[in-house]
C-alpha cells in the first residue's frame, strides 16, 4: 500500500469542529486510495466466486443439512474485518508516524489521538460495510438466510471488529515503518484467515485443532457467528475469548504505541 499524502492539520482550536475537520480530511484521503475500496469489495466478491463451485451449493448431510456456501458467509464477514484491520489500518497509521505527521499534530490544538480514533472509526465502518455487503450478497445471489439470532450476531460481530482493530493498532505500535507494518500485518493475516475456517471450516476440523483455533479471536468469532446464524445465542465461552483478546490487545497497543 502506498503511503498517504500528508494530512492537513486544522488550525482551529480543539473541540468538535477540529475533530470534524480531521474526519473530513481523512475521509478524502481514504477515498483516494484504491486499496481501501478493494478492501470493501474483496470479501463479497470472494463469496460470489466461491459460490460458483457447484458442490458448494449442494446440501450436505455431514454439515447438518447446510451447504458449504452457507458456512462461508460468516467466514467472509470475518475476512472483511481482518482485511481492514491488518492490511489497511497499520500501514496508514505507521506512515503518519514515519512522515512526522503525528509529531507535528502534537504542537497543535488537535491531538494525535484524534487522528488515531478517526482512523479506527474509518476502518471500522469500512469493515462493517463490507460485512453487510457479504450478508446481502449471500442472500440475494445464493439464498443464504440472514442470521436468525440478530442480536447475538451483532454482538459477536462488534466484538470481533474491536479485537481486529485492536490487533491492527498493536501492529502499528510495534512496526517502525509502513513497510514493516505491511509485513507484520501480512504475517498475522494468513494465520487469521485459517482460524476463520477459510480453508477448513472450524466445525470440520479435528477436535484438538478446533479447540486450539477457538481460543483465537477469529476462531471464536467464526463459531459465535455460526451459532447466531443458526438461531442460537453465541456461546459464552466464545464471547469471553473475544472480549479478553480485544481488551488485552487494546491495552498492549496503548502501552507500546509511539507518537514519534
UniProtKB/TrEMBL annotation:
Membrane disposition: Multi-pass membrane protein
A cellular-component GO term for this protein: ATP-binding cassette (ABC) transporter complex
Residue intervals of the ABC transmembrane type-2 domain: 35-260
Record flagged with keyword Transmembrane helix: yes
Segments traversing the membrane: 34-56, 71-96, 121-141, 153-174, 181-200, 236-257
GO biological process, one term: response to antibiotic
Family the entry assigns: Belongs to the ABC-2 integral membrane protein family.
Principal location class: membrane
Protein name in the entry: Transport permease protein
Subcellular location: Cell membrane; Membrane
UniProt entry keywords in alphabetical sequence: Antibiotic resistance, Cell membrane, Membrane, Transmembrane, Transmembrane helix, Transport
Any Pfam family matching the protein: ABC2_membrane
A GO molecular-function descriptor: ABC-type transporter activity
